[in-house]
Every structure is written in C-alpha cells, then in structure tokens.
User: Which sequence fits this backbone?
C-alpha cells in the first residue's frame, strides 16, 4: 500500500513539474514592429505608400507588401507575380524574401504580394530603405520599386 502512495506522489510531482515547465517555456519568437510603412517609387509604373507586414517563426520569416497606391495597369491572376523583396541588414548585407503569392488584381487596383518567405537570424534588423521590391509579371515585365526613405516606425527586428 505504501508503494502505491509513493508511486502516486511521484507521478503527481512529475505532472506538476511538467505543467510548470510549460508555463515557463519560452514564447514563440516574434518580430517587432509587425507592420511598417514606406513610400515606394516604382519608376514609370508609379508608386506611393505601402504597408509591410512581417511574421517570424524561428528562422523562418515572411513579409507581405500591400498598397492601394501602387497599382497594376493590367488585370493579373492569383499567384502570377514573382516577387523578390530585398531588405538591408543593419549589420551589413541584405536579406531576400521571395515568392509567387498574390491575390487576383483588377486593372487599376492596388497591389499585394506575399507572404514572401525569407530566412532571418536572431538580432537581425532589416530596413526597406536601400533595398528593393522586384516584381516580374508575365515572365518578362520587370517592375522595380525602391523605398524613398526609412520605413516607419522603424526597422524589423527579429528575436
């Protein structure tokens, strides 16, 4: 009888420790800020304000760019824009986010690309200014947009 009580006590203690361990487990890694805005110049294709939305899960990160001011002159089907968003690292170098994700776009409507996938490291601080967004449409029309100043409220910092 005594060994059953001891076994039950040990099991309860182990369960309590496991639950406590979950309560103190590190939270999911995150990027701050999660959104930032830029003013982009896309050359003869126009430009304007765009919102960048970032996410992070470990070293995997995504960024989505959306703008009602950067518009498409033609109707485009879903997932038809091949995009590369290059951001500048505060420590030097660049990080590229790539993908072919976009919703269908009506002629004259704002453009959204992403989520574009990239790899980050803890402590990376990434800024759109000095980088570029390259969109390839129909496999041969290339549109390059550049930020005209620092993103607001500041660079994306990855944990």
Assistant:
């Amino acid at each position: 009888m005594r060994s059953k009580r001891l076994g039950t006590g040990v099991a309860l203690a182990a369960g309590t420790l496991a639950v406590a361990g979950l309560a103190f487990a590190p939270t999911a890694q995150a990027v701050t800020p999660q959104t930032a805005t830029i003013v982009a110049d896309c050359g003869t294709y126009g430009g304007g304000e765009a919102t960048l939305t970032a996410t992070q899960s470990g070293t995997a990160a995504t960024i989505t760019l959306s703008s009602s001011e950067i518009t498409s002159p033609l109707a485009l089907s879903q997932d038809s824009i091949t995009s590369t968003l290059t951001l500048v690292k505060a420590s030097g170098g660049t990080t590229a986010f790539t993908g072919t994700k976009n919703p269908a776009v009506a002629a004259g409507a704002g453009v959204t690309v992403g989520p574009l996938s990239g790899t980050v490291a803890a402590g990376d601080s990434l800024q759109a200014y000095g980088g570029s967004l390259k969109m390839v449409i129909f496999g041969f029309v290339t549109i390059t947009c550049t930020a005209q100043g620092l993103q607001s409220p500041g660079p994306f910092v990855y944990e």
